[in-house]
Amino acid sequence: MNNSIELIPSQVRRDILRMVHDVQSGHPGGSMGCTEFFVALYFKLLNHSPQPFNMDGENEDLFFLSNGHISPVFYSVLARSGYFPIEELNTFRKINSRLQGHPTTHEGLPGIRVASGSLGQGLSVAIGAAQAKRLSEDKSLVFTLHGDGELQEGQIWEAALYAGSKKIDNIISTIDANGQQIDGSTDDVMPMGDIGSKFESFGWDVIQIDDGNDLSKVIDGLTAGIDHSGKGKPVCIIMKTEMGAGVDFMSGTHKWHGIAPNDEQLEVALSQLPETLGDYPL
Amino acid sequence: MHSYINSGNKDTRSGFGSGLHDLGKINPKVVALCSDLTGSLKMNAFADEFPDRFFQTGIAEANMIGMAAGLTIGGRIPFTGTFANFSTGRVYDQIRQSIAYSGKNVKICASHAGLTLGEDGATHQILEDIGLMKMLPGMIVISTCDYNETKAATIAISNYSGPVYLRFGRPKVPNFTSPEKPFVIGKADILTEGEDVTIIANGHLVWEALEAYNALKQIGISAEVINFSTIKPLDLETLLKSAKKTGKVVTAEEHQRNGGLGDSISQALSLNNPCPMEMVAVNDSFGESGKPDQLLKKYGLDAKNIISAVDRVLKR
Lengths: 282, 316
Hints:
Radius of gyration of chain A: 17 Å
CATH superfamily of chain A: Thiamin diphosphate (ThDP)-binding fold, Pyr/PP domains
Distance between the termini of chain A: 32 Å
Order of helices and strands of chain A: HHHEHHEHEEEHHEHEH
Strand order of the largest sheet of chain A: 1-2-3-7-6
CATH architecture of chain A: 3-Layer(aba) Sandwich
Number of strands of chain A: 7
Low-confidence stretches of chain B: none
Strand order of the largest sheet of chain B: 3-2-4-5-7-6-12
Number of strands of chain B: 14
Largest sheet of chain A: 5 strands, parallel
Number of domains of chain A: 1
Radius of gyration of chain B: 19 Å
CATH topology of chain A: Rossmann fold
Shape of chain B: globular
Distance between the termini of chain B: 26 Å
Mean pLDDT of chain A: 97
Structural class of chain B: alpha/beta
Structural class of chain A: alpha/beta
Mean pLDDT of chain B: 98
Largest sheet of chain B: 7 strands, mixed
CATH class of the largest domain in chain B: Alpha Beta
Largest interface: A-B, 38 and 32 residues
Order of helices and strands of chain B: EHEHEHEHHEHEHEEEEHEEHEHEHH
Helix content of chain B: 25-40%
Strand content of chain A: 5-15%
CATH class of chain A: Alpha Beta
Strand content of chain B: 15-25%
Oligomer: heterodimer
């Protein structure tokens, strides 16, 4: 593995925590759990050109974040991969910012191709984009990310049925299987059963990543997903992660889903995360 | 008597189907999606001739709306087709987030709107769709009156970049506008010039307004009938010019009073040119099964009710 990519997740987690702490709002837990996924995608696997950002993304791979509340990790990775100035991270959730609480095209932030936040919609949008690419004979891929709790939304299954039945094989959807949602664990709130076999029964090719917070495993899993594309089935990657991964007291609990650390907690958290690439200025 | 001649009853949804088929031939960027109502929406001609550009989603409207947002990639112009109820209320959040807020160039085309879908009854007779859609920032809202206008509007909205809601209906109704007339978004159409009262209508009630015009003419009342097919943006210039001339306004629509055309006209008049106004619309009620003409009569939406409203407004 490229040495430099290993330096990125720690910095992204620092960005997430500093952004959320600064405005005392936002969603750090899921963001930290999906840090390796975003880093693997944007710094290794996605065929994309951040500058100039092109909404249509012809001949580029596209990514749609369906669980928009994990915007902090999305913004950090977009900024650090060149879509917009890193300094802009300090506008997160503030008035007149392009970095809205949930991602949107409305303020013109490069890298965002649809608004998300109200859950369950991103898979449908991605399928539409995948169909558009087919019409253009554009061989690039469409990636999505969903929370496991998000799968409780009915629209997901409308879309999953469509993609499986119509053999949309240029789409790779990853499920952040952290087993947590706002009100508690998914097992307590609404047990999800075997997510992989559900997708398989809808006609998807399913790949498992057993540790979504191990960067090399995420890269391997996503690479396998890319290899499985174009073979007549949409690809679903079930990625097991820890909500709040990277900081001991935040890891593995739903409590940090939508709570910001206080000053003291931030200090402890940052002490566990080396500043590898330089913090953005507050 | 007014000079509009019914060239033969036709359904507005067929105007949509014909317009969409023409668009398929002239604009390769146009794609269409339907949730298992291809025949009802008259989308078969497009689907048969352009199968690569037609997406059958099954009975899954939320997915259809989301897919339409994604299909805009590469400058494509998606047209979605289903009943008005399933085009709006059922998928409101999908439209709000994935299309309106995201600024996607999707045309939401909705048939079987209002009471006149008839026998299927209130579950399908949406009378709230215009209100829902006009509240969304940036959404264009159009309700056409006959086959020719629906066909022209279908073609016209493909040339506008941004989300549009196009509402039409099920029954065969008089087809009286010129097939040569191009549709202009946001431009109301003065059908008859008049001095005493302005009658503002859209959808199926435009013909009822013209029938009312004839009856009023016989008792010496000169009505200016205006087809306000675009509810948003509202043609303020035409509205205010007519309202200043006649000083009395009646609106007529196949929709709830709350949130419809009359509601928009009332707001515009009270802000710019307050004058007496009466509304012909469904008043906080659901519909029921029946024949279209029976329903228009029972719910107070036919020419006779427009004449009564004129009578009331002239006494104010």
